[in-house]
């Protein structure tokens, strides 16, 4: 804990004074570039990853970057999404999964979370991910590859969940909002975006390539 308090003092002494103008401007309001939905995992730093500054990213963090479908719960997720789209007029939403995701590990191995009823309940919003992986990718037995695939499929499933939110559906329909699916591999710094043309996650190169319009086609069984 002391490290955190020391960090605040150093921030006030050094970082704040260097950017004082920026911080003062933030009091006038916010106009973020995107809504960034990612996992609560401590190894992800959205601002550092995208080299953005305070005021530039509206961020929602949940276990496994899960977005409960509209109407299933009226919690913080629905509220954040609605506010981002309707009040802040966000033009882009990114759902960013990541390598070595503990939530996705729990999804594949329910035994590991059997004493965590809240986690179990929340992961129900990723049940489609679990079923897609278990039923359509039976041939994939390597645990690391299976987890990577689960992380990717879950990004696509959560994009589908995101589209059930009326504010998102309406704004996408008007062409005012674009949805993007990313996976961040923190041990290498790589970021992959889902490319619907290639039906695959490819290195993010420009804003047009990671556009996500539909879910990945499944392999033939
Ligand atoms: Zn995670």
- Biggest beta-sheet profile: 6 strands, mixed
Q: State the CATH topology.
A: Beta-carbonic Anhydrase, Chain A
User: What count of helical segments does DSSP give?
Assistant: 9
Rg estimate, integer Å? 18 Å
* N- to C-terminal distance: 52 Å
The number of domains = 1
Bound molecules: zinc ion
InterPro entries: Beta_CA_cladeB, Carbonic_anhydrase, Carbonic_anhydrase_CS, Carbonic_anhydrase_sf
EC number: 4.2.1.1
Protein name: Carbonic anhydrase
Organism: Lignipirellula cremea
Layout of secondary structure:
Elements: H1 2-18, H2 20-26, E1 34-39, H3 46-50, E2 57-62, H4 76-87, E3 92-98, H5 102-108, H6 117-123, H7 127-136, H8 143-163, H9 166-174, E4 178-185, E5 190-195, E6 200-203
Parallel strand pairs: 1-2, 1-3, 3-4
Antiparallel strand pairs: 4-5, 5-6
Bound molecules: zinc ion.
Question: Can I get a quick summary?
Answer:
Helices cover 43% and strands 17% of the residues.
In words, what does this structure look like?
This protein is an alpha/beta fold. It has one domain: Beta-carbonic Anhydrase, Chain A (3-Layer(aba) Sandwich), CATH 3.40.1050.10. It is 43% helix and 17% strand. The protein is built from nine helices and six strands; from the N terminus they run ααβαβαβαααααβββ. It has helices at residues 2-18, 20-26, 46-50, 76-87, 102-108, 117-123, 127-136, 143-163, 166-174; strands at residues 34-39, 57-62, 92-98, 178-185, 190-195, 200-203. Strands 2-1-3-4-5-6 form a six-stranded mixed β-sheet, covered by helices on one side. α4 (76-87) runs parallel beside α9. The protein starts with a helix and ends in an 18-residue tail after the last strand. The structure holds zinc ion (ZN). Zinc ion is lined by residues 39, 41, 64, 98, 101-103. Zinc ion binds at residues 39, 41, 64, 98, 101-103.
């Amino acid at each position: 804990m002391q490290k955190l308090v020391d960090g605040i003092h150093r921030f006030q002494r050094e970082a704040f004074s260097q950017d004082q103008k920026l911080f003062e401007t933030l009091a006038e309001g916010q106009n973020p570039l995107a809504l960034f939905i990612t996992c609560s995992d401590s190894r992800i730093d959205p601002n550092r990853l995208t080299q953005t500054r305070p005021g530039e990213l509206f961020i929602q963090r949940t276990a496994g970057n899960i977005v409960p479908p509209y109407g299933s719960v009226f919690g913080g997720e629905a509220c954040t999404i609605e506010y981002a789209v309707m009040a802040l007029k966000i033009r882009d939403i990114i759902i960013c999964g990541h390598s070595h995701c503990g939530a996705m590990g729990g999804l594949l191995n329910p035994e590991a979370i059997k004493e965590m009823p809240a986690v179990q309940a929340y992961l129900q919003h990723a049940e489609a991910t679990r079923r897609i992986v278990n039923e359509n990718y039976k041939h994939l037995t390597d645990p690391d590859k299976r987890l990577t695939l689960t992380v990717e499929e879950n990004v696509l499933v959560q994009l589908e969940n995101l589209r059930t939110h009326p504010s998102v559906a309406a704004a996408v329909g008007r062409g005012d909002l674009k949805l993007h699916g990313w996976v961040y591999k923190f041990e290498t710094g790589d970021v992959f975006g889902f490319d619907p043309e290639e039906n695959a996650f490819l290195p993010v190169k420009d804003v047009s390539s990671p556009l996500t319009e539909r879910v990945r086609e499944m392999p033939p069984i």
